[in-house]
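User: I'm putting together notes for a lab meeting next week and I want to include a structural view of one of the chains we've been expressing. I don't have a solved structure, so I'd like a prediction I can at least talk through. The sequence is below, exactly as it appears in our construct file.
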Amino acid sequence: MTFSSKLIEKAVEAFATLPGIGRKTALRLVLHLLKQDKLVTEQFAAALVSMREGIRDCRICHNLADEELCQICADQRRDRSLVCVVESIRDLMAIEDTGQYRGLYHVLGGIISPIEGIGPGELNIDSLTERVQEGSIKEVIMAISPTIEGETTVYYISKKLQESGVLVSAIARGVAFGGDLEYADELTLGRSIVARIPYGR
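Assistant: Thanks for the context. Below is the predicted structure for the 201-residue chain, given as structure tokens.
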């Protein structure tokens, strides 16, 4: 791809680093921005810089947040006796989109995968056990993608929580084994949350 401008080439290369964006799509986005009023482009760039500088981890659940607490943890209308454990923020968003769950969340930041060198110490598991030990949580829902690594993670966490007496449940298997949670349709995922079952320990 030949460019008449180094500035356009640099912008295309920047967009092309985003997942799912090839160079042709990146070029279309750059040309679209060039057609817009200069103020629109400035607002677009400012929004990205503001997000990158201002975003932080929620100190409780590790979701993305503007303040110390994310909007979900700060919402007093949520059922604070329920905590749904997810692998990633994308999974949290997928469950929220179903409209079927009104409890709190805990984002692990990944799953146990010895092949990739990810052990329990690299995940937000200790902070989960600390939350449970505080005593207000009655049920922990394991909403982890049903893969071998996911099942290993669920098993490890359930063992860690065994002495707490909290109910550990898992989403129903409307989600196919080996599939990624974020790609499940909203209806299937919503039903899986509602029809969760106690996790066998």
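A couple of points you could mention at the meeting. DSSP finds eight helices and seven strands in the chain. Residues 64-198 form a domain with the Dna Topoisomerase Vi A Subunit; Chain: A, domain 2 fold (CATH 3.40.1360.10).

User: Perfect, that's what I needed.
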